Amino acid sequence: MVRLALACLLLPGLHAASFAPVRAIFEKSCIHCHSGESPRGKLNLSSANGLRTEKILAMVTEGKMPLGGPPLKASEVDAIRAWIAGGSVWEGEALSPPKQQFWAFRSPVKVAPPAGDPHPIDAFLRQKLSAKGLDFSPRADQRTLIRRLSFDLTGLPPAPADYALTYEQASAKYLASPHFGERWGRHWLDVVRFGETDGGEHNYERPNAWPYRDYVIRSFNEDLSYRDFIREQIAGDLLAPGDPRRVAATGFLVAGPWDQVQAEINKDKAMAMTQRMDELDDMVTTTFHTFQAMTVNCARCHDHKFDPIPARDYYRLTAVFAGVGFGNRRVAEEASIAEYESRIKPLKDSLAAWKAKLGAIEDPKRVALLRERYQAYDRQHESEALRMPLNPIWNRNRFSEAAGERYRLVVTAHRGKRARIERLLLQPAGIELKAFTSARPASDAEPLIIDLAGSGKVRELTWATDWNTGSGDGTVSVYRLEAAGPDGNWHPVASSLDHARSVEISLPSVTPEEQTGLLDAEQLAQRESVRREIARVEAAIAAIPEPTKLYAAVPKASITPSFVLERGSVTQPREAVGAGAMTAVRQISLDVPVAANDRARRLALADWIASEKNPLTARVIVNRVWYLHFGNGLVNTPSDFGVNGDRPSHPELLDWLAVSFMENNWSLKWLHRTILSSRAYQQTSAQVPRAFAIDADNRLYWRMPLKRMDAETIRDSVLFHAGNLDLQSRGGPGFALQKKGDAGSYIYKALANDGPAVWKRAVYRFSVRGGERIMMDSFDCPDPAVATPQRSVSNTPVQALTLLNNDFILSQAGAVARRVEREAGSATAAQIGHLYQLLFGRLPSTKEQALGANFIKNSNLALYARALLNTNEFLYVP
Amino acid sequence: MSPKHQHKTYSRREALWQAGGGLAGLALTRMEARAARTRSPQPDFTPKAKNIIMVFLPGGFSAIDSFDYKPDLEKFHGRETKGANTITPFFGKRGTVMKSPWTFKPRGQSGKMISDLVPNLGALADDMTFLHSMVARSNAHGPALFQMSTGFIFQGFPSIGSWVSYGLGSENENLPSFVVLPDRRGLPPCGVSNWGNGFLPAAHQGVILGDERQPIADLTPPSSVAPRQQKATYDLLTELNEEHLRQNPGEDALVARIRSYELAARMQLSAPDVTDIRSESAATRAMYGLDHPVTRDFGYNCLMARRLVERGVRCVQLYNGGHFGEPRVNWDGHEDLRTNHGKNAAILDAPLAALIRDLKQRGLLADTLVVLTTEFGRLPISEGLGEGGRDHNPEGFTSVMVGPGLKGAYAHGATDELGYKAVENPVTIYDQHATILHLLGLDHQSLSWYHNGLARRLTDVHGHVIKPILA
């Protein structure tokens, strides 16, 4: 007040002219963020209170504000400067926050399409085309349309007979084809970063992750309502705990990279907690990118800089998934798992008892023979059985479980003059040896025999972590661990030989024939009856179906409380929070108590996203489908509908599609049919210079863009034309194009395994993170380490070399040639004609015939097929 | 360039400029040029260096046993670290302070103390800029490797070489702009992700250079395809594609693709020229250690690095060390540092020193930045009691840079008296990346690519150019 009065005194008259333009600037460019309950940067521009005018001036002068938008005009900055110079006098009412929300958060409204075109899509599009004096391109010819439909809907070239179908017949056929789900399932797997290895340093395989891929494909084929598709991926295990298909759907949550090393062995507590937050971040990020096109992950360290997403929202979202862990789980109703366990347990007990009886018959003589052989073997191999280098993770040897009343360690060789053991632990009995130093050296003739205090079951021997390379002074290099039973006889249960390279060692054994020879007639008869019993029990066990095991969300035993973390740091927890969602979505709120269980948390979010009231959900999916059909999205950032993303080119069309989609039971096939039946989709892809000059990016859809095949389509098409693609083989464990290296290496080597085992659609390959380069990598096939809502389409010399010289392409080109020879005979002209029909669905021109004939004359048909597989006409679908 | 104006992705534009350096050859109308991505491949300001050779030592190279001299290790050898100074190992047992098995000596005119582990590199101390206060975000190999390679601790982001390729394009269209030379003993941990293009176009992917037989994967067809047939194939493709283009006029993507086949044909000739070292003198071969079985493979790769930058390849990534598993062929000296680092350094030291000397004598060092780095260092304590190895240390380690625009014989930052934590001018990996880009004429804040709602940068939202080390 003082300041205001002072300003009036000092600068009479000036203030009256200065505030009005500033007020307009604030309303237009600033108030959106700087108002309300938690204004950004704690700057509230709705009234005169507490304005830091110098800061405001600096921010707009330097162009730092408005954040994410174009800088203010010089004249606007001048107006603000003048106002501040005049004492920053506030006039009139307080400014209220904008009533109009950002477009993405407003509920979609279905307005009637403009008159003129029978198809609503065309009507909305034409309105904008006409405004620029443009029109749709003509309808493409039959051949082009059939090819377009086939590649778009199934990712495969059309079968020759398909060219005779009408457009409507073809689109109905492809939508009903099982290959539709394979094609669109692949698109979805890109968006959700589906991979079948952990990624990172160790990159463990996930052999049971494929059911999620099959779930996605089947859901698209069966046209599962998109609402259910959402709910099942977030909480399918809670909706139907006994249904493997719906439990597999939650593979979505854990499909991303996971650092098991960090999660399970890092001793640094803060690092381990950060790892857990990274896991939750991956789930939150993917869920919100995928279903809401919102970058909530930006609010991990601070309130989102562009979108109305406070950090508190982010941490409430981490609370949604706080009960979800990574791993494999058995799937069945709880009751049936219990029933399975109760049926299987007595059988397993009985099996163990019969096996013990078998052991009682066979073992005494076999063990005696084995002992002799081992001793002989030890003597032969001691020199090479130096303990393998152990390291702190793998400083254990595990062996068949043994029980003993006493244990002893027999050392026959070691480094240096005295044997030294810092610490040795026998588990699970918990027998320990500490700080042992021998008084004399050990030798074969005079072994050191160290008694270990304790008894019980053992199956694991752990050495202390120092001296463990076997190079330190005193390191024990040759030893046996022996156990004694009630009879007092010692027998070895583990030895330094356990460390020897398995490839170099073949331990002595007793063959079945030798074993039989050791037994007398009575024992043989007993053994026979025991064996029959064992076979009977094993058959009974096999007859009880085991509940399915698959990689999916695994409930955690307990839920760690969630907090808002200051600057994202696990060491700075603030307010404890329960599960919630984005508060900017005002149509529907979510507020789950802190004490709620996993079920309450995840189901609540699943319902929140799948709600008709959610303004984002339907818009996001119709836009994804649109983008994949047209190469341009109505919003061209399919996973970001925020302030920093694209604005819809046709907001009314987007809303019309979104609302109609919900009205049509959230059916994706309805959406496809609607798009495919539009004139816009059926246009030619020819360049139109006049339209290009006005709208180079084709945001107005004056033509269909020419689309380069993606990596999978290239591979599938080549196999298809070669007659090698196995289209019947669908689902199940993926085929491998890369395999984990042997000798414990974590590198996935590219395999040279061209053959029927891998002649399946690329969507069924075992999807490795960070594997050695394969052919598809040259064609922008994304690594599943990150989500890829939009693939790059690049054009590189390496790509050309791959398509020309890669072994796979060459051998398949050979197969294409053999097929053509089979089907078209030996006349060159007929062969060329047939190839053109297969690859391009047309006959060659006279010139093309002549070029082909000339090439084949000087080369061969296989190399000709290879050349055609490299043409632009092959790779680009008009 | 504001990230806001960059987020529209269209195949047409990408096809255009993603031909890598191939843009220059395309006739662009004004319209097309405007529609192409806002960033054309060129420096933001006058660069100090044109090329970069990154030498990576996976597994964790110990600073306190090489370039970061800590006499206190000797003094406190065998003592425990206590209280606030307690050191938390990654997964090993906590041991006691362990002196270096190697002796430190003053090197060069500057008298920089460098150990006998790397005597040949030590001799180049006067050319080196030492970052002694490097800090990594993770103490586990995977995330730490990713951070050094890509700026992020997660897999899947573009590698620094891909960013440089995207930022500067190629100086030699006949070779890839980003070439990788893995250790012959095996790929580094996390494999190809260390040079992946992430969400950048595949044109910026690191391409592995093999040996004379197949310098680049799929460079040549098998011998069953005669050179005459290969040429006929190129000719036929050109004819067919040009005919196709006549029927689809005005399609830039089709033009770019025709051109990519021309480049491929030229690469088929240029790449074998890189790997053919018959023209190298006996003295050069000896200098790189090609005559010695221990240094031969790494020496060959070092020589390749020189031959690549000589030919204008923008970015060369050179590995000394490979994956884990058995045998573990990298610098992860948990158990026996002396053997582990000793063996690896015997491979590294002479050839890398030869590369730097050779670059210098040929005048190439005036345009080439050489960076020696690792994912993290190693702890001053032993792993477990008694002598042995060292566990991971992301809190303070050393990276070495050599090249134009840098103060030679200069040490920036420092760790504490035991070499555990960076206590003076800590340098994050973001800072180092920002500085590398700066020396190459790129502003790390504006070199960005829109992905999943964000204008992504190599340096995320961090990074400051380390001004004190700039000449």
Notable traits:
A: 878 residues; alpha+beta; four-stranded antiparallel sheet; 29 helices; disordered N terminus; B: 471 residues; alpha/beta; Alkaline Phosphatase, subunit A; nine-stranded mixed sheet; 19 strands; 30% helix
What topology emerges from the helices and strands here?
The complex is a heterodimer of chains A (878) and B (471).
Chain A: H1 2-10, H2 14-30, H3 53-61, H4 74-85, H5 120-131, H6 142-154, H7 167-176, H8 178-191, H9 210-221, H10 226-239, H11 244-249, H12 260-265, H13 269-292, H14 311-320, E1 324-325, E2 328-331, H15 334-381, E3 396-404, E4 406-414, E5 420-428, E6 431-437, E7 448-452, E8 456-463, E9 476-484, E10 490-495, H16 512-518, H17 521-543, E11 548-551, E12 554-555, E13 562-565, E14 573-577, H18 598-609, H19 617-630, H20 651-663, H21 668-676, H22 689-694, E15 707-708, H23 711-721, E16 738-740, E17 748-750, H24 797-805, H25 807-824, H26 828-840, H27 846-858, H28 861-869, H29 872-875, E18 876-877
Antiparallel strand pairs in A: 1-12, 2-11, 3-8, 4-7, 4-9, 5-6, 5-8, 9-10, 13-14, 15-18, 16-17
Helix pairs in contact in A: 2-4, 3-4, 5-20, 6-7, 8-9, 10-18, 13-14, 15-17, 19-20, 19-21, 24-25, 25-26, 25-28, 26-27
Chain B: H1 11-17, H2 30-35, E1 51-56, H3 72-75, E2 94-97, E3 104-107, E4 112-115, H4 119-122, E5 128-135, H5 141-150, H6 160-168, E6 178-181, E7 207-208, H7 227-247, H8 252-275, H9 282-287, H10 296-310, E8 315-319, H11 337-361, E9 368-373, E10 377-378, E11 381-383, E12 392-393, E13 397-402, E14 410-412, E15 414-415, E16 422-424, E17 427-428, H12 429-439, E18 448-451, E19 454-457
Parallel strand pairs in B: 1-8, 1-9, 5-14, 5-17, 6-7, 6-8
Antiparallel strand pairs in B: 2-11, 3-4, 5-13, 9-13, 10-12, 15-16, 18-19
